[in-house]
TrEMBL record:
<dbReference type="GO" id="GO:0009707">
    <property type="term" value="C:chloroplast outer membrane"/>
</dbReference>
<protein>
    <recommendedName>
        <fullName>Digalactosyldiacylglycerol synthase 2, chloroplastic</fullName>
        <ecNumber>2.4.1.241</ecNumber>
    </recommendedName>
</protein>
<keyword id="KW-0934">Plastid</keyword>
<comment type="similarity">
    <text>Belongs to the glycosyltransferase group 1 family. Glycosyltransferase 4 subfamily.</text>
</comment>
<keyword id="KW-1002">Plastid outer membrane</keyword>
<dbReference type="GO" id="GO:0019375">
    <property type="term" value="P:galactolipid biosynthetic process"/>
</dbReference>
<keyword id="KW-0328">Glycosyltransferase</keyword>
<keyword id="KW-0150">Chloroplast</keyword>
<keyword id="KW-0732">Signal</keyword>
<feature type="signal peptide">
    <location>
        <begin position="1"/>
        <end position="22"/>
    </location>
</feature>
<keyword id="KW-0472">Membrane</keyword>
<dbReference type="Pfam" id="PF13692">
    <property type="entry name" value="Glyco_trans_1_4"/>
</dbReference>
<keyword id="KW-0808">Transferase</keyword>
<dbReference type="InterPro" id="IPR044525">
    <property type="entry name" value="DGDG1/2"/>
</dbReference>
<dbReference type="GO" id="GO:0046481">
    <property type="term" value="F:digalactosyldiacylglycerol synthase activity"/>
</dbReference>
């Protein structure tokens, strides 16, 4: 009973790729391990050099997992200002160009030894289990918690078609129900899952809260804290809010005369965004992507973000932490932010003009200590522990002891159906032909020889 809980966090990306599933699980590992009450292992993908060149920016490359780990730990310590006591392990991953995602190669649950298989957190559980072929997660771990980050259905609807979105919805429901005991959805903007709960278990990089404190001091001293008008930052692809924002600016150019907006981002649609901006009469400038904590952003007062594809937008949380006013859509993805006085939402196109004008005329409200805490990773960790019910002692398959015969019969039937479903998935995911049909990377049933060598993995018997 005195044995520490062991939490293994599996995620789909890693720094230096600055995506949500690289950054947020890293902070989660740091803050779950901070008080020393539990053992934490962060499991992240290792990419061979050819894939690193496709994914990691600024020619950042790693010759070994040890070098990669050192980079991740240094980045984290510079932002949290404390040394984290958690383990980092790597699983073999491959980059899918068409999905713009990293997918696992082989059975990644093997990264955690059986004796440590207590709690597993699957960051993006559908993504991690679409092509999983190996030990069943619920069998290996006492508790498996899925945290749903991404609104995959919305992306597919926008980029492909409704039929594929329909099929994906049922595929996601299938694999998540097979492999997860609990599902936490960051907001109602995600796909609904049976027995899931909605809770934002993400926090803000501490450096944004520090910037906000400095802005608060300027306001309290009577200084002008914000000298620039409005901006937006995000990966420069149409689905990340640029389409909505430029349409709003185009449709209301006359009402917004004199407005200056700066757009910051890099991405596949950069040239098209540039072309669209040149057709506007408003003063809109496009700049390359930067770190949102860069001093260039400190002086902006208003963050414009009409995107409805995010689940919980990280840059919106960062802007609020820095003390800015945020103008965003009245959408379920922004429900968590509505508790903050500097969050201004709009419903219709005309409302955007009214809300934006008022935001530019107002001074941002000064955040209280309680509001800053709500944005922090300390609060996010508290919310996670409560939502996951990790304070309750667990034993493997403990739920297989129902209190009466009726429940026993009913639950056994449910388990039998689920077990059969899991066996079907295991069977289908074990053939190269069927994996290709469902979009797996060819040759990803097992790690390739190069990755085995890089990660020091044992070659399976018979190979």
């Amino acid at each position: 009973m005195n044995r520490k809980r062991h939490i293994a966090i599996f995620t789909t990306a890693s720094l230096p790729w600055m995506t949500g599933t690289a950054v947020n699980p890293l902070f989660r590992a740091a803050y779950l391990s901070k008080d020393g009450e539990r053992k934490v292992t962060l499991v992240i993908p290792w990419l061979s050099l050819k894939d690193q060149e496709l994914v990691y920016p600024n020619n950042c490359r790693f010759s070994s997992p040890t070098e990669h780990e050192a980079y991740v730990r240094q980045w984290l310590e510079e932002r949290t200002k404390f040394r984290s006591d958690f383990t980092i392990r790597f699983y073999p991953g491959k980059f899918s160009v068409d999905k713009r995602s990293i997918l696992a190669a082989g059975d990644i649950s093997e990264v955690i030894p059986d004796e440590d298989s207590d709690v597993a957190i699957l960051e993006e559980p559908e993504h991690l289990t679409w092509y999983h072929h190996g030990k069943r997660w619920k069998t290996k771990f006492c508790l498996v918690i899925g945290i749903v980050h991404t609104n995959y259905l919305e992306y597919v609807r926008r980029e492909k078609n409704g039929v594929q979105a329909f099929l994906l919805k049922y595929m996601n429901t299938w694999v998540v129900s097979i492999y997860c005991h609990k599902v936490i959805r960051l907001s109602a903007a995600t796909q609904d899952y049976p027995k899931s709960i909605i809770c934002n278990v993400h926090g803000v990089n501490p450096k944004f809260l520090e910037i906000g404190k400095k802005k608060l001091e300027q306001q309290q001293n009577g200084d002008q804290a914000f000298t620039k008008a409005a901006y937006y930052i995000g990966k420069m692809v149409w689905s990340k809010g640029y389409r909505e924002l430029l349409k709003l600016l185009h449709d209301h150019q006359k009402e917004l005369t004199g407005l200056q907006v700066d757009l910051y981002g890099s991405g596949e649609d950069s040239s098209e965004v540039q072309e669209a901006v040149q057709k506007l009469e408003l003063s809109v400038q496009v700049h390359p992507g930067r770190d949102h904590a860069d001093p260039i952003f400190h002086e902006y007062k208003v963050f414009l973000n009409p995107s409805t594809t995010d689940v919980v937008c990280t840059t919106t949380a960062e802007a609020l932490a820095m003390g800015k006013i945020v103008v965003c859509a009245n959408h379920s993805s922004n429900d968590f932010f509505k508790q903050f006085p500097n969050c201004r939402t709009f419903d219709k196109s005309n409302d955007f003009v009214t809300v934006t004008r008022k935001a530019l005329a107002d001074e941002p409200a000064q955040l209280t200590d309680a509001q800053r805490h709500e944005l922090s990773w300390e609060a996010a960790t508290e919310r996670f522990l409560k939502a996951a019910e990790l304070d309750h002692p667990l034993t493997k398959n403990q739920s297989r002891s129902p209190s009466n015969n009726y429940m026993s019969t009913s639950m056994n039937l449910q388990w039998n159906i689920e077990d059969l479903s899991a066996q079907v998935h295991h069977f289908v995911s074990g053939f190269e032909a069927s994996r290709k049909i469902f979009g797996a990377i060819p040759g990803s049933l097992q790690p390739d020889e190069e990755q085995r060598k890089e990660l020091g993995l044992v070659v399976p018997a018979g190979n």
